[in-house]
Every structure is written in C-alpha cells, then in structure tokens.
C-alpha cells in the first residue's frame, strides 16, 4: 500500500518535470499507412493517412532525432503510479517496411 502511494506521488512529481501528451490510435498496422508529424516549438500535429488525429501544445525542445524500430518490449509508468515492463508475445514473425521517408 505504501509503495503504491509512493509511486503515484512520484509519477505526479515526474509529470511536472517531464511534460507529456499522447493518444491511443486504433489501426491495422499490417496495412500501409501514411504518417505525418509536424513539429515546431509551440505545437505538434500528427496525421494518419492524411487525416489529423492528434494535436498538442506539449512540444519537445529541439533538436530532435528520429528512431524507428519494431520490437515486443514495453515499459510504462501509468498516471496511477503503476510501473510495468516486459515483453509482449509475438506469435508470428514481425517486420517493418518503409516505402518513403522525408525529413525537412
């Protein structure tokens, strides 16, 4: 009980230091999609297949880097203070294909 209260308190403190924002998207990742990310110092806009699906004023300070990967590992520190890490089962082989990449 004490550990759960401590982790919830710690998560609230960390959230003040590390601003974050996110949105869960439901999509078939086995199909081709166009992802577009527009970033500037005051906002971030994310589009999926030409449709804006997420906008936020929470914007990381530059310079930014790009990392693209596929794996089955996860780590999470949820808003209620729960800490989770592990791997997800991958019943079939997985791969990622990138048809075109433009950074400007």
State the domain count.
2
Shape: globular
Which oligomeric form is depicted?
single chain
> What's the Cα radius of gyration?
17 Å
Summed up, the helix count is 1
Tally of strands? 5
Structural category is: alpha+beta
Q: What attributes does this structure have?
A:
104 residues, alpha+beta, 2 domains, 3-stranded antiparallel β-sheet, 1 helix, 15% helix, globular
Overview of this structure, please?
The chain has 104 residues and is α+β, with helices and mostly antiparallel strands. It folds into two domains: 1-20 and 63-94, no CATH class; 23-57, no CATH class. 15% of the residues lie in helices and 27% in strands. It has one helix and five strands; from the N terminus they run H-E-E-E-E-E. The strands form two sheets. The protein has a three-stranded antiparallel beta sheet, with no helix packed on it. The model has no long low-confidence stretch (mean pLDDT 86).
Fold topology:
Blueprint: H1 2-17, E1 35-40, E2 43-48, E3 51-56, E4 73-77, E5 83-87
Antiparallel strand pairs: 1-2, 2-3, 4-5
Summarize the structure.
The protein is an alpha+beta fold and 104 residues long. It is built from one helix and five strands. Strand 1 and strand 2 form a beta hairpin.
